[in-house]
Amino acid sequence: MNILAGFMLPHPPLIIPDIGRGEEQAIQNTIDAYHKAAQELAALRPETIVLLSPHQTMYADYFHISPDKSAMGDFGQFGAKQVRMEVSYDTEFVNSLGGLAGAHGLHAGTLGEHEKKLDHGTMVPLYFVNQYYTEYQLVRIGLSGFSLTSHYRLGQCIREVADMLGRSVVIIASGDLSHRLKEDGPYGYRKEGPEYDARIMDVMGRGGFGELFAFEEDFCEKAGECGHRSFTIMAGAFDRTAVDVERLSYEGPFGVGYGICTFHVRGMKAGRSMGKKYSTAEGHSMAEGHSVDQEYSIDETRNFLEQFEVQEKERLRAQQEKEDPYVKLARFTIETWLSTGKRPPVPEGLPEELYCRRAGAFVSLKEDGKLRGYIGTISAVRSSLAEEIIHNAVSACSEDSRFSPVEHWEVERLTISVDVLGDTEHISSPDELDPARYGVIVTKGRRRGLLLPNLEGVDTVEQQIAIAKQKADIRESETVELERFEVVRHY
User: Fold this and answer.
1) Which residues contact residue 205 at a Cβ distance below 8 angstroms, ignoring those fewer than 6 apart?
2) 483 contact partners, CB below 8 Å, separation of at least 6
3) pLDDT in tens, 390-449
C-alpha cells in the first residue's frame, strides 16, 4: 500500500495573508487546521503528491492531467503577484496513470490543456504544504463531468499506479463546500447549502466514503459545492483500506463552507513514523521514514464501489421491471441499435396510441444520475408515435453531440424516460406559464428554443424562459413569442 494519507482541504485565496490582509483572521480555525494537516503531510515525506483541483482544466468527458515537467503560478489575479510557486511534475506517474485509466475504460490523459499556470485550487493547499515540506513531485488532476462512480474508479487507478511504481503518495482533495450559505455570500443563500455542508462533514468526518454516491446531482448543484468529485476520487484511492479519520475544522463565515479532514492509512498516522529527525523549511522538527503493515490496513468491508454497484443494479432491475410500454420501446430500440446498427421495426403488442397517434416526443437517458443523452422532436415528424420514439431513442444514444455514443455495456445502467408532447398554444404573457406543469417554446424569427416542464433545478418561469432562450441562441434582453404545452412523462 503506497497511498499513505489523504487530505480534504479548501482553497479560499483570502487565507493567504498577502490577499486576506487581516480578513483571514475570521477563519483562524481553518488556518490552524491547515497548518496541522500540512505538518502531518510533511511527516510522511511522500515522493509524490497527487492533487485534485476543481479549478484545473475540466472537460465533460475527460480527466485532464497536467503535462510537461514543471509549472509555475502566482496569486496575481487576487492582487498578490509576489506570492508565487513552482512545481515539478512526476511525469512517470502521469504517463502511467493516463495509460492505466484508458485500460480501465476511463478517458484520461494530458491532452487539451487550457492553462499551464497553476490554479488557486492547487496553490492554496501547496502554500501551506511548502512551509513544511518541498521534496515532492506533483501530479495535478482536473475533475470531469463523468459520474461519481467514474471519479471513484480514477482514484482506484491512482492507487494502482502508486503500487505499480512503488511510489509513496499522499492525496490532496482540494475543494470548498457549499457556496450558498448566506444571502450576502458570493452566490446567495439556498437551503441546500447548509444541508450539504452538514452532510458532507458528517460523511467525511466518519470516513463513510460509500455515502458519497448518495448525493444527488441536483442537490449538489443547488448547494453550489465545488469539491465533491475531488473527495470521491480520493475515496477511490482508499478502496478496501482502513483509515484513521480526523475532522480538524469547519467554518463558513463568508457564505462558503471550508472543511478540513485528514485520512491516514491505518498504521501510518503522522507522528508515528520511525526514523531520524529532519528540519523543515520553517525550522520544525519532523520524523523521516515510514512503514505500514499491509495486512493491518486492509478492510474488505470498505469496498464501497462494489457495494454501490450491487445496490444500483438491483434498483435498476426493479425499476426496469416497472417501465411502461413507451420506455420499454425506447430501451428495446437502443439495445437493437447497439447490437445490429439498425433501427428495429415497430413491434407488435404496443398500446393502440403508439400506432395511431402522431406527436412530438423526447427520449432522455441518464446514467448514475447524470444526463447521458437527450433528443426529441417538438411536433410529429414520423407517421406514428411509436416511430417517433424509435427514431429519437436512436438519436439520444448516438447523436447527442454533448456526449460520446452510448456503449452496449451501459444499457443496463441507463434510466430512460419518454416525454410525449401535447398540442402547443400561443400565450401572451409569462403569467400563463407554470414550470411544473407547462413546457415552453420561445421563438424569435427562425430561432426557436424549447424547454420541457417539471425539470430538476428549474423552479421559476424566469429560469424556464432564460434557459429556452439560451438553447435557441436568443439574447436574454430580446422579446420573444411564447407557446406552452403539456407533457405526459413515461418512466
Assistant:
1) 245, 247, 261
2) 424, 425, 426, 427, 440, 441, 443
3) 999 999 999 999 888 999 989 999 999 999 999 999 999 999 999 999 999 999 999 999
53: region left, alpha or beta (phi > 0 left; psi from -120 to 50 alpha): beta
Quote the CA–CA distance of 127 and 145 in Å, as a whole number: 28
What is the pairing mode between strands 3-9 and 169-174?
parallel
Q: Are strands 438-444 and 447-451 parallel, antiparallel or unpaired?
A: antiparallel
Provide the β-strand partners of residue 486. Answer: 438
How many angstroms separate the Cα of 309 from the Cα of each of 149, 218, 376, 412, 460? Answer: 9, 20, 30, 12, 35
For residue 476, count CB atoms less than 10 angstroms from its CB and return exposed for 0-12, middle for 13-18, buried for 19 or more.
exposed
Phi-psi category of residue 311: left, alpha or beta, with phi > 0 → left and psi -120 to 50 → alpha: alpha
- Rounded CA gap, 456 and 435, in Å? 10
What is the rounded CA–CA span in Å between residue 117 and residue 96? 23
| Positive/negative CA dihedral, 147, 152, 155, 161 | negative
* Rounded distance between C-alpha atoms, residue 328 and residue 344, angstroms: 13
| Coil vs helix vs strand at 203 | helix
Nearest-angstrom CA–CA distance, 13 and 174: 12
CA–CA separation, 14 and 261 (whole Å): 20
What pLDDT does 114 receive?
A: 87
What separation in angstroms does the CA of 21 have from each of 17, 179, 431? 5, 22, 48
d(CA 434, CA 141): 42
Distance from C-alpha of 367 to C-alpha of 359, rounded to nearest angstrom: 26
pTM for the whole thing? 0.83
Phi, psi of 138 (to 5 degrees): -115, 145
The residue type at 67: P
Residue of 42, 115, 113, 127 lying closest to 84 (CA atoms): 127
Report the sign of the C-alpha dihedral through residues 226, 228, 234, 236, in that order: negative
Question: Percent of the chain at pLDDT above 70?
Answer: 94
Place of cell 486576506: 20
Q: What are the residues facing 52 on neighbouring strands? A: 141, 173
- Name the residue type at position 344: P
